[in-house]
Write a structure and sequence with these properties.
The protein contains 9 helices and 7 strands, in the order H-H-H-H-E-E-E-E-H-E-H-E-H-E-H-H. With about 230 residues, it is α+β, with helices and mostly antiparallel strands. It has 2 domains: about 45-80, no CATH class; about 90-225, 2-Layer Sandwich (GTP Cyclohydrolase I, domain 2), CATH 3.30.1130.10. Strands 5-2-3-6-7 form a 5-stranded mixed beta sheet, sandwiched between helices. The longest helix has 16 residues, at about 160-175. The radius of gyration is 20 Å and the shape is globular. It starts with about 25 loop residues before the first helix and ends with a helix. It binds guanosine-5'-triphosphate (GTP) and zinc ion (ZN).
Amino acid sequence: MDALIKPIRPNKPSDKQPEGRPAELDPAEFLAAAVRADQPRPARAEAEHAVKTLLAYIGENTEREGLLDTPRRVVEAFDELYQGYHQCPAEVLDRTFGETAGYDDFVLVRDIEFTSQCEHHMMPFYGKAHIAYTPVERVVGLSKLARLTDIFARRLQTQEHLTAQIAAAIDEVLKPRGVAVLIEAEHTCMSVRGVAKHGASTFTSRFTGMFRDNPAEQARFLSLVRGLQR
Ligand SMILES: Nc1nc2c(ncn2[C@@H]2O[C@H](COP(=O)(O)OP(=O)(O)OP(=O)(O)O)[C@@H](O)[C@H]2O)c(=O)[nH]1
Ligand SMILES: [Zn+2]
């Protein structure tokens, strides 16, 4: 698959939506690792220097003992928080199982916790993803839906884009009869700064195939997510 080896931009603004339908995501945008191992990037020392500049910007003494290792720690934290750029969503969904005894209903994994970083402020947003898909013959390991969520969450995101990318990757790789993704999250850029509204939740959803075409399936998904919750 060509898309797996091409370097790609992590996110690009979607095209205008024709007639209210969601613009299709480019598979190259969500199936591959976003950064290739051989892609030129600034050296670690440059990244650490940038952190030192920010410390000086807020008025800190960058030479005081407590801050000496901070640039290194921050860059290491970035490596962890943004590891999704180096991971390949298509690979995670690659392993499927065919012995399903003719199972033909949807499979729902609910309450997948995640933390992502908002692309506007680089501050965390966190919450739960609920993912359902209706398999055709083969099913994917349940943990892989959580792994897929983490790959996209560990990149700079908007919640809408995260939701759409998860659905699009499952659609493209597993080719199921439909996918439903619902994400609920709290954005710290809205709670600890700016408008400062603690506890506000944002919900986003994406339905494809039978979930998009059949309101009864959407309703059943939503009632399983909501009805049996907590
Ligand atoms: N649609 C969407 N907006 C987001 C997301 N994360 C953060 N935002 C919003 O991005 C917007 C950026 O707005 P700007 O006016 O450019 O930036 P700002 O001056 O920092 O905005 P305030 O947060 O209102 O102070 C804010 O309204 C955020 O709440 C997200 O996942 N999806
Ligand atoms: Zn933000």
